Amino acid sequence: MSYVREVKVLGQVLRWYREYKNPEYNVPLLKRHLRDAHFKEIPLKGSKAMTAEEMEIFLGNLKTHPSQVYYYLATFQALTGVRIGEACGLAWDCVDLTLGWVTIKRIIWWDNGKKTPRLREGTKTDSMRRIRLCDRARETLLEWKNQSANASFVFHEKGNALRYRMIQHMYNQGFRWAKLPYRSTHVLRHTFTTLFVAQTRNREALRSILGHTSFSMIEKYAHSSELTQEDAIHQFTLGHGLRVIEGGKSKPSELLQPQIGIVKS
Question: 42: Cβ–Cβ under 8 A, 6 or more apart, which residues?
Answer without folding.
Answer: 35
